[in-house]
Amino acid sequence: MQQDHVLIAGGGIGGLVLALTLHQIGVRCTVFESVRELKPLGVGINLQPNAVRELEDLGIGEAALDAVGLPAREWALVGLNGKDIYAEPRGKEAGYRWHQYAVHRGRFHMMLYNTVLERLGPDSVRLGCKVRGYRKEADGSVTALVERADGTSEELGGKLLIGADGIHSAIRAQMHPDQPPIHWGGTIMWRGTARGVPIRSGSSFVGLGTSRHRVVLYPISHPDADGLADINWIAEQTFDASHDWTNSGWFRPVELSEFAHEFEGFVYGWLDLPALLAKSDLAYENPMIDRDPLPTWVDGPVLLIGDAAHPMYPTGSNGASQAIIDARVLGRIMTQQGVSAASFAAFDAELCAPIGAVAMRNRGAGPFGLLNMVDERCGGQFDNIDAVIPADERAAFMLAYQKAAGFAKEQLNTAPPTIPAGAQVAGEMAA
Asked: Among 240, 270, 302, 409, whose CB has the most other CB atoms within 10 angstroms?
């Protein structure tokens, strides 16, 4: 491994978009991913318009995204009584220059992976290789300590190392050995997909229920000739502090009988949730977890991005989007300041504190905080939501979140490209 390579630990969404970004600006890199074989695992995620803009600037346009999902037209919160609390159009339907996409995470991930291999070459992603730690060298470079799936290990030198290795990041653990343990806020999520008829606009993200007991629904495929689509569902229940969440694995397969009875009352003229859940082939259980914000994501030639830097509750639907933004902002800074520890320091100064604050907003329920407000003001029962939370107050609440997360419409529509067309890295590392 040549010393002028950038090493990327983790081949998830953030790591792969970073690899594509570095290739775009002329930086050589290699991705190390711990699994031996990438498969289209997972369920649905949302890509906000700010992330879709960045993907388009990478040459991943609507045709590619339509193959793994579909544009979202509406975002809505509905009370347990079946009445609307808040609804707004999304993406181009709302006047953005870009869609918001609801995609199957696994299919989107595989599309990114195949794009990296096509553009950077078959050796650009090394599977079955986990970066267990790092060593900073006297010349300012870094050595990655890599463990292979067969149990052997190697040391690989690089100019810089970027930890995109998720919430259980080994690089984060070395950088911040005294970090607090993973934080659980009391909520367990059960997730899956089922074939069904999309509700409302036909491509609506709907949060239904209360702050402690709710379900999220949205389609992640275009409807077929019979009008059926893959419906992503997330059923959530909040427990008291005595509940042992450590028995909940990350994407642990579970039987519907373990939790479906908690949602038997979610039956309306426009939705029969128990019937939809019963059509699911598989269900997975996840605790809703994150980590406390860090004071810095940098240790000299080593940087954290994505969930390794700022794991978030999914309440804002912007965890994957922020990982994409991380990669693009880092690319922009490198075109200005070169492939150097100085670029890492500038990235940290720009994003660490504000994105840590977004993560805390999500821990506080993010945009779903409106459900908390309804519970506090009327116990979740209302005839006219305007009498509980005036329309202006609801709109202001949502706009504040969108601004903090970087996808407020006017702010985004008028912003210049993060990386100007044709921009290349500053300094001697241009390919």
From this structure: 302
The residue count for the chain: 431
Alpha carbons 83 and 385: distance in angstroms, whole number? 8
Which helix (H) or strand (E) is 237 found in, with range?
A: strand 229-238
pLDDT tens for 59-116 read 999 999 999 999 999 999 999 999 999 999 999 999 999 999 999 999 999 999 999 9
- Asked if 134 and 145 count as a contact pair (C-beta separation under 8 A), the reply is yes
Q: Shortest CA distance to 298 belongs to which of 343, 361, 249, 253? A: 343
Residue 248, helix vs strand vs coil: coil
Please, what's the b/e burial string for 255-275 (b: 16 or more CB within 10 A of its CB; e: otherwise)?
ebeebbeebeebeeeebebee
- Identify the burial level of 318 via C-beta atoms within 10 angstroms of its C-beta, where 0-12 means exposed, 13-18 middle and 19 or more buried: buried
The reported pTM is 0.94
